[in-house]
């Protein structure tokens, strides 16, 4: 028993000495938490640099946009082919995603060798080889002559402008095929595949293996938003906010960024961390000066680092009694699988002896202990460096989400991470120590990145298919110049019909004479009562007009009109109005005072004299053109009531099924068709109808129609103005949708914004076509080459919508280029107008009495 204790003491002492010896020799490779936090901060700075448009060109960490915007949502399905090139093995796979809605993925695959003469030969031969392997795979599985969407996992840094393209920035790891750098590898592959007349594949996506890994894991865990490879090479990707990605248009939603962290330090930022061993390894590598971070971490280099260290220690007489072997001098003789074997808990030491012996060395027990510790320090540093960079990414995710605590999942893959006995534990431990405010789940990707690549392809083809369907719906609202000119022409024709006695009754645009024949000339004066009914609110106003100085002072009170009054009897409505007037006069201390009153009554009225009004567009018409009223002198204001335009079906060619739905559900089906395509009361309802239809098609809100969305009028037009505001980030769009009981994704919100834009744009364009018709008429009526005219505008939609007035102005300019139209917003609403008209009428009556 004493002998055993003596042996144990002797061994632990020996071990201690060897460990100390190695710790001294490799002092610079042991990184304290303070150093790791510093590296983490440096990496955060590099990420920011990579994301910046101006700084990206000089950034070493390229932060490449991948155009992967969505993680799988379970609705993906179909059959896909997938190629996985760049890791330690080249694989061709067929992936079947989700049969009958069941969330499962069937995969069958075949590995193909990647001989050096291929991966370091001529680029086109490399792609010919890949295409040959693909053809072989399809032949052996009877897949020829069947069209397949294909996803390419290409594990090298590629700059992408879309999913189905990737410009190779540089080869890494063992690859160095000529003539491929700075070319689009998807075109290279497409060209090679085309040589095989009997295979038909559509390369829909190119993804980096980190992206494939993240997507593979996200299919099982929706919290997964980071993908890390620690294999032959090393790299990471994560979901970044579009608003932080300068290199890609748009601020909405998120996109996956392939960091290419392997190149961290290529600009010298890690020179204080790198050791002489790292520099020697780099000089002997395929790409000196490149991928310096990767060369301190990944599987292709870890074994070589250990070899270089052992050789230096042997040369320094610290190992093997100073003896060296030719194998120890030979690059690549020690591989990462050897390092992993030497670090195994139980059989590690025995493995170490066996491996060193295979290298032609005669290691002592002490040597084996020392070599094992060398492996530990090298692989520990690798895990630490990965942890520091990963912690930087996790911190960025937490800050992007403005969270105190982040819960997330990191998808992992790569041989080093999978085969090294201690690696995962060490990495997880250090990550959690560096970012204590993150709950991180590490999820190993069981089926490699290709399942993920198939997911991206499935998402791409789903998004592509959905996009096509959504574009089909949005296209219904995109009016061509020809269509707008046609509306303008038809509106003009309806104007003429309405003005002419013979055709007036059949005209849909009633062109109602208003008996307003004069415009204010500044001599008007006095106190006037004005009522403004029919817009959003009912207002009673006292308007004081002082002559000569064109000054008008107004006092007004807004009264709500309860729905039951709005839709009750006429008598109840007018009793309510009179009550409001009485309240107002009482409030103004004018009870019993006799005052002239002007009434803005925003509904279609046939008038025989000036004291009954309504309009949505009026203009001063030449009396000679108004056959319904005696006299040819002067002008009279015509209330077009163009809201009824199209009630005869003349614009049914541009009315959509959604317009019909809105009309069917309205208080006056078949009536006011133009108004129902253009005005604030209906735009929100059109949007609601479209959203319901898109949701029924499974294109929105995962096909779930909320009770609230089924409620007529729930999607108010004010939401359009809010949602379309450029200042509103997507998150705010989502909160509006939340209020409507709609649980939306980023993509959903982008589509909702597009739908709102399409509906409001069409409305503004249709208004523009109508306005162009009337200003062109006035120009021609006045026989003018050019007409300069001001149009008074009012209304909540025009005032509040962020783009309506601009699109309206642009449309009028395009359709009536010889009219210089100024749109002037009426600051005081039409109440003031009613008082001014009353003042003008009183002035003209006075003038008539005096004549
Ligand atoms: C398996 C993935 C593949 C990736 C590889 C990385 O399917 O896309 O490139 O992991 O690990 P390696 O094979 O380089 O160790
Ligand atoms: C490549 C990355 C790849 C990583 C892991 C690196 O050398 O640059 O694109 O993701 O290896 O395979």
TrEMBL record:
UniProt KW keywords: Acetylation, Allosteric enzyme, ATP-binding, Cytoplasm, Glycolysis, Kinase, Membrane, Mitochondrion, Mitochondrion outer membrane, Nucleotide-binding, Repeat, Transferase
Primary gene name: HKDC1
Top-level taxon of the source organism: Eukaryota
Protein name: Hexokinase-2
GO CC annotations, alphabetized: cytosol; mitochondrial outer membrane; mitochondrion; photoreceptor inner segment
Organism of derivation: Canis lupus familiaris
Gene Ontology terms describing biological process: glucose 6-phosphate metabolic process; glucose metabolic process; glycolytic process; intracellular glucose homeostasis
Parts forming coiled coils: none
CDD domains attached to this UniProt entry: ASKHA_NBD_HKDC1_meta_rpt1
An annotated Gene Ontology molecular function: D-glucose binding
Major site of localization recorded for this protein: cytoplasm
Hexokinase C-terminal domain sequence ranges: 226-459, 612-840
Localisation: Cytoplasm, Cytosol; Mitochondrion outer membrane
């Amino acid at each position: 028993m004493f002998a055993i204790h003596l042996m144990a003491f002797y061994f632990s002492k020996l071990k201690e000495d060897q460990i100390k010896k190695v710790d001294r020799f490799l002092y610079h490779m042991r990184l304290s938490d303070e150093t790791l936090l510093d590296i983490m901060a440096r990496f955060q700075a590099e990420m920011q640099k990579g994301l910046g448009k101006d700084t990206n060109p000089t950034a070493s960490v390229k932060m490449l946009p991948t155009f992967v915007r969505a993680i799988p949502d379970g609705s993906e399905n179909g059959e896909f082919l997938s190629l996985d090139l760049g890791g330690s093995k080249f694989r061709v796979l067929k992936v079947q995603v989700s049969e009958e809605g069941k969330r499962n993925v069937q995969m069958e695959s075949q590995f193909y060798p990647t001989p050096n003469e291929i991966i370091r030969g001529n680029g086109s031969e490399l792609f010919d080889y890949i295409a040959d392997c693909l053809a072989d795979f399809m032949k052996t599985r009877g897949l020829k002559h069947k069209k397949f969407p294909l996803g390419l996992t290409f594990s090298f840094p590629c700059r992408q402008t879309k999913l189905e393209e990737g410009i190779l920035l540089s080869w890494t790891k063992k690859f160095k095929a000529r003539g491929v750098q700075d070319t689009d590898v998807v075109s290279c592959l497409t060209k090679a595949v085309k040589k095989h007349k009997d295979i038909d594949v559509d390369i829909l996506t190119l993804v980096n293996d980190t992206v494939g890994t993240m997507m593979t894991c996200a299919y099982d865990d929706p919290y997964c938003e980071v993908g890390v490879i620690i294999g032959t090479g090393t790299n990471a990707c994560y979901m970044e906010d579009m608003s932080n990605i300068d290199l890609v248009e748009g601020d909405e939603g998120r996109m996956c960024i392939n960091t290419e962290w392997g190149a961290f330090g290529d600009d010298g930022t890690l020179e204080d961390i790198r050791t002489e061993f790292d520099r020697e390894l780099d000089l002997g590598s395929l790409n000196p000066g490149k991928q310096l971070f990767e060369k301190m971490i990944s599987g292709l280099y870890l074994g070589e680092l250990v070899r270089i260290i052992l050789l230096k220690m042997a040369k320094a007489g610290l190992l093997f009694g100073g003896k060296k072997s030719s194998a120890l001098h030979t690059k690549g003789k020690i591989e990462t699988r050897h390092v992993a074997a030497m670090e195994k808990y139980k059989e590690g030491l025995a493995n170490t002896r066996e491996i060193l012996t295979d290298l032609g060395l005669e290691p002592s027990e002490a040597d084996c202990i020392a070599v094992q510790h060398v492996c530990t320090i090298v692989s520990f540093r690798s895990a630490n460096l990965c942890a520091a960079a990963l912690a930087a990414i996790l911190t960025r995710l937490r800050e992007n989400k403005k969270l105190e605590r982040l819960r997330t999942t990191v998808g992992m893959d790569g041989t080093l991470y999978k085969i090294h006995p201690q690696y995962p534990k060490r990495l997880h431990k250090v990550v959690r120590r560096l970012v204590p405010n993150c709950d991180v789940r590490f999820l190993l990707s069981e089926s490699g990145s290709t399942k993920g690549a198939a997911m991206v392809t499935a998402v791409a083809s789903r998004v592509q298919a959905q996009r096509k369907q959504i574009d089909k719906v949005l296209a219904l609202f995109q009016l061509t110049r020809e269509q707008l000119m046609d509306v303008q022409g038809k509106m003009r024709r309806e104007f003429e019909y309405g003005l002419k006695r013979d055709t007036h009754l059949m005209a849909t645009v009633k062109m109602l004479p208003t008996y307003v024949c004069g415009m204010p000339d500044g001599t008007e004066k006095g106190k006037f009562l004005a009522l403004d009914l029919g817009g959003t609110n009912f207002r009673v106003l006292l308007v004081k007009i002082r002559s000569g100085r064109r000054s008008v002072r107004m006092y007004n009170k807004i009264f709500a009109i309860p729905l039951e009054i709005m839709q009750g009897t006429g008598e109840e409505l007018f009793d309510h109005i009179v009550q409001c007037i009485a309240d107002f006069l009482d409030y103004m201390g004018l009870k019993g005072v006799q005052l002239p009153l002007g009434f803005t009554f925003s509904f279609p009225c046939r008038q025989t004299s000036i004291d009954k009004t309504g309009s949505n567009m009026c203009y001063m018409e030449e009396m000679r053109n108004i056959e319904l009223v005696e006299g040819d002198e002067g002008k009279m204001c015509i209330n077009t009531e163009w809201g009824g335009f199209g009630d005869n079906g003349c614009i049914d060619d541009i009315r959509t099924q959604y317009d019909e739905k809105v009309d069917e559900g309205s208080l006056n089906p078949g009536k006011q068709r133009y108004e129902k395509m253009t005005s604030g009361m209906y735009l929100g309802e059109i949007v609601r109808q479209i959203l319901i239809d898109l949701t029924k098609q499974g294109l929105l809100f995962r096909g779930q129609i909320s009770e609230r969305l089924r409620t007529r009028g729930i999607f108010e037009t004010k939401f359009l103005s809010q949602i379309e505001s450029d200042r509103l980030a997507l998150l705010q769009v989502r909160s509006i949708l939340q209020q409507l009981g709609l649980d939306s994704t980023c993509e959903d919100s982008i589509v909702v914004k597009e739908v709102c834009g399409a509906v409001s744009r069409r409305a503004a364009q249709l208004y523009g076509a109508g306005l162009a018709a009337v200003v062109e008429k006035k120009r021609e009526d006045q026989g003018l080459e050019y007409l300069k005219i001001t149009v008074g505008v009012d209304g909540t939609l025009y005032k509040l919508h962020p783009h309506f007035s601009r699109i309206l102005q642009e449309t009028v300019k395009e359709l009536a280029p010889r009219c210089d139209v100024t749109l002037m917003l009426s600051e005081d609403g039409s109440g003031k107008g009613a008082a001014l008209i009353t003042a003008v009428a009183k002035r003209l009556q006075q003038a008539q009495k005096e004549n």
